[in-house]
Amino acid sequence: MITPTLETRYVFTITAKIGDVITVGETGIGVRRIIPIIGGEVKGAISGKVLPFGADFQTIRPNELIDLEAKYAFETDDGATVYVENKGMRFGPVELLQKLKRGEPVDPKLIYFRTVPKFETGHQDYRWLMEHIFVGSAARHADRVVIDVHQVV
């Protein structure tokens, strides 16, 4: 028997506006940071707005690899609320990661930034989000994070 081919299909883009970084400090496993999520939008097969609460909880490892865990929600244009837990990592050349920390622009193609979003909702029209695995390709900008969400088919 042959296993199914692993493929992905673009579904939508989440643009999450972010607030000022809160640095907790060195915790023994890295530098803990909290980045508030203050709004944004969803466009594509699903359209809506990112709700103005939630945060990305990050740990920056000594080699500058960043573990990410964002928790937030969005509301679709037809009124469904979708909770998101998005885990991932960001890594690249140290000098470019330092520029991102300072809010300076960096070509997203030079930074490895991938996520695995999981969705929860009670709205029947969007239950399919809970029945599939998704991966995201992301880019960090000074005031926002943009995530192209792809369904694993």
Could you describe the 3D structure shown?
This protein is mainly beta and 153 residues long. It is 5% helix and 59% strand. Strands 1-3-4-5-6-7-8-9 form an eight-stranded antiparallel barrel. The model has no long low-confidence stretch (mean pLDDT 95).
Strand content: over 45%
The biggest sheet, with number of strands, parallel, antiparallel or mixed sense and barrel status, is:
8 strands, antiparallel, barrel
Query: Given the structure, what is the number of helices?
Result: 1
Secondary-structure-based class equals mainly beta
- Give the distance, in angstroms, between the N- and C-terminal Cα atoms: 19 Å
Helix and strand pattern: EEEEEEHEEE
The Rg value, from CA coordinates, equals 16 Å
Give the integer mean of the pLDDT values: 95
Organism: Bradyrhizobium zhengyangense
Protein name: UPF0311 protein L6637_13530
Pfam family, one: DUF3237
Family: Belongs to the UPF0311 family.
